[in-house]
Design a protein that fits this description.
The protein contains 15 helices and 20 strands. It is an alpha+beta fold.
Length: about 500
C-alpha cells in the first residue's frame, strides 16, 4: 500500500470512528432520559477472575453453581432472541450466552439497544459446555458498568498502528493479548530480580530523583528549577553516589530499582526515561559482581522460562554460566580483527583518523581505546560477554586494578549488540576520587558534556570511610527486550517518551 492509500485508509478509519462516537453519544443521552446510568456505581463480583471461574468449573463440572463476573465486552453476535458475546478481564476471555427468555424482555431490549463492543459489563449466571466444546456462561443477570464512547480497533487485526499503540497504550492492551502478556512478563521478571536480591540479604531503598549535582554516570542530564529554593536541579541520571553514601552509613547491601533520565538521543535501544537496577555490596570486588550478576540473570530466566536458552531475533542467547570474559584490548583483536600494533599508543591516532572516530580534544589513550571498542566491538557481541580491563580514564568512579593501575577493576556485560550491565570495585580512596572528579571537570571545560561534575559532598562521605565494595547497574528495559524477544525498547515500556503529536488525540 503506497502513502496515498495509507492516508485514505487512515482518513476513512477516523471518519468511521467519529460517526460511531456520535452514535454512542446519542445512546448515552437516551439512556439518561430513561433513567439508566451509563457509569453507575460498581456491582460486586463473587469470584476474582474469569480464569478462576473456569478453573473451579473444570474441577467439578457436574455441580451447578452461579458465578458473577465483570469485564470488557470484546464482541457480540445478535441472533434475534439470543446473543453470543466475548467477555475479557485481566485473566482472559469467556463466552457469554444471553437469552431473552432468561434475562427478561426489558433487560434484553436494553442490552440490544444500548450495549456496544468495548463496554464494561457485569454478568451473573451458571457455566456449561456448548456442543462445540466451549465453556460458556449462561447469563441470568446483567448490568452495564461503564459505557465506552469509541469503537475498539478492528477485532481480527487488533491495534496495528505502532505510533497509536505507544500513544494510546490502553487501546494496545485492550486489543493485543501479546502486548498484555509482555508487560505481565516484565512485572514477573522485575519481581524475580527483587526476590533474588532480598534472598541475598540486600535491602531495597529509595534515593532522590532530584539532584543538586548530576552524578553516577557519564550522561547529559535534564534540568529543572525549584521555585521555593530558587535553585536548578537535575533529574537523576543514576542513583550511584547516593547508594554508596548508604554503604558508608553501614547499610552494607542495598539495591534500588529506579527510574533514570538522560537527555540523549533516542533509538530502538534508548529512551530518555528508563529503568535501572543498581545494587551495592560491601566486602566484594568486581569479580564477585560478575558472579552475582550471572546468578541474578540465570535466576530471572529460570523463574520465567523453561530453560537458559532463549530466542532473540536471529540468535539463540545462552545464559549458562560462566559468561565469556575479554579485556577491551582482547576484544578489539578477537572480535574487531584489529592488531595489537594498530591499537598501540603510537598508531591509535592514525587508526581513528582513518575511520573518522572523533573524541574530545583532551582525550588520552584510554579514551581513544574505548572509542574504538564502541565503534568496532559492541555491536558484534551476541552471547553474554563480560568486557573487563577498562581504561581508568573512562571509569571515574571505579577502583584501579590491583595488578595494573592503568585499568579499572570494572566489567560491562554485553549481549546482542547492547550493553546490559556495568559494575566495578568501588573507588573508596577520597584523594584519588577527588583527583578524578577534577579531571572530569577539566574534560567538561574541554567540551565533554557527559563528563562528571565535581561532587564535594560525596568526597566528604568517602572521607568517613567507604568499605571495599562492588556496585552493579543492570538495564531492566533492555533485559526485558532480550527475554521477551522484542526488538524495540518502546515495546517494553508502557509509556515511552514520544514527540508531541500534531494530530488531535481526542474529540473536542
Amino acid at each position: 500500500m503506497d502513502t496515498k492509500d495509507q492516508l485514505k485508509t487512515a482518513q476513512s478509519t477516523q471518519e468511521t470512528e467519529l460517526n460511531e462516537h456520535e452514535v454512542r453519544l446519542s445512546k448515552v443521552t437516551k439512556m439518561q432520559e430513561e433513567g439508566i446510568q451509563p457509569w453507575p456505581s460498581f456491582t460486586h463480583t463473587d469470584i476474582s477472575t474469569v480464569q478462576a471461574a473456569l478453573a473451579e468449573f473444570a474441577s467439578n463440572p457436574t455441580v451447578e453453581k452461579e458465578f458473577s463476573l465483570a469485564g470488557r465486552l470484546m464482541s457480540h453476535r445478535d441472533h434475534g432472541k439470543t446473543f453470543f458475546c466475548n467477555l475479557q478481564d485481566r485473566s482472559g476471555n469467556i463466552q457469554l450466552y444471553i437469552k431473552k427468555d432468561v434475562i427478561g424482555d426489558n433487560v434484553f431490549e436494553q442490552f440490544k439497544k444500548y450495549v456496544d463492543v468495548g463496554d464494561i459489563i457485569w454478568v451473573k449466571g451458571s457455566l456449561f459446555v456448548t456442543k462445540m466444546g466451549e465453556t460458556t456462561l449462561k447469563v441470568n443477570q446483567f448490568e452495564l458498568e461503564s459505557k465506552c464512547l469509541f469503537p475498539l480497533p478492528e477485532k481480527f487485526h487488533g491495534l496495528t498502528d505502532i505510533e497509536q499503540r505507544y500513544r494510546q497504550r490502553y487501546l494496545d492492551l485492550i486489543s493485543n493479548p501479546e502486548s498484555r502478556e509482555k508487560f505481565k512478563k516484565r512485572s514477573l521478571i522485575v519481581q524475580a530480580i527483587r526476590n533474588f536480591l532480598q534472598n541475598k540479604d540486600f535491602l531495597e531503598v529509595e534515593t532522590p530523583m532530584l539532584h543538586p549535582i548530576p552524578g553516577g554516570a557519564a550522561a547529559r542530564p535534564f534540568v529543572t528549577h525549584h521555585n521555593a529554593y530558587d535553585m536548578d536541579l537535575y533529574l537523576r541520571i543514576a542513583p550511584e553516589l547516593y547508594l554508596k553514601r548508604l554503604v558508608v552509613g553501614g547499610l552494607d547491601r542495598v539495591f534500588e530499582i529506579n527510574r533514570n533520565f538522560r537527555n540523549e538521543g533516542v533509538s530502538t535501544r534508548h529512551n530518555p526515561e528508563f529503568t535501572m537496577l543498581e545494587f551495592y555490596m560491601a566486602y566484594g570486588d568486581y569479580n564477585a559482581g560478575m558472579e552475582i550478576t550471572e546468578q541474578l540473570l540465570q535466576d530471572a530466566v529460570l523463574k520465567n522460562f523453561d530453560n537458559l536458552k532463549l530466542q532473540f531475533q536471529d540468535h539463540v542467547v545462552d545464559f549458562s554460566a560462566p559468561f565469556k570474559r575479554l579485556t577491551v584490548e582482547e576484544s578489539l583483536i578477537e572480535i574487531a580483527g584489529l592488531t595489537k600494533d594498530q591499537i598501540s599508543e603510537k598508531n591509535i591516532d592514525a587508526l581513528m583518523t582513518q575511520h573518522k572516530i572523533v573524541v574530545h580534544k583532551t582525550a588520552g589513550y584510554g579514551v581513544k581505546l574505548f572509542a574504538l571498542f564502541e565503534a568496532f566491538v559492541e555491536s558484534k557481541i551476541v552471547q553474554p560477554t563480560f568486557i573487563i580491563g577498562y581504561p581508568i580514564e573512562v571509569s571515574p568512579l571505579a577502583k584501579r586494578d590491583a595488578h595494573n593501575p592503568n585499568v579499572a577493576a570494572r566489567f560491562e556485560l554485553f549481549m546482542c549488540g547492547m550493553e546490559f550491565a556495568n559494575g566495578f570495585s568501588e573507588l573508596n580512596d577520597p584523594f584519588d576520587q577527588a583527583a578524578r572528579f577534577k579531571a572530569q571537570a577539566d574534560a567538561r571545560e574541554g567540551g565533554d558534556q557527559e563528563a562528571h561534575h565535581y561532587d564535594a559532598d560525596y568526597i566528604k562521605a568517602l572521607e568517613f570511610g567507604l568499605p571495599p565494595a562492588v556496585g552493579v547497574g543492570i538495564g531492566i528495559d533492555r533485559l526485558v527486550m532480550i527475554l521477551t524477544n522484542t526488538s524495540a525498547i518502546k515495546d517494553v515500556i508502557l509509556f515511552p517518551t514520544l514527540k508531541m503529536s500534531h494530530a488531535k488525540d481526542s474529540v473536542d
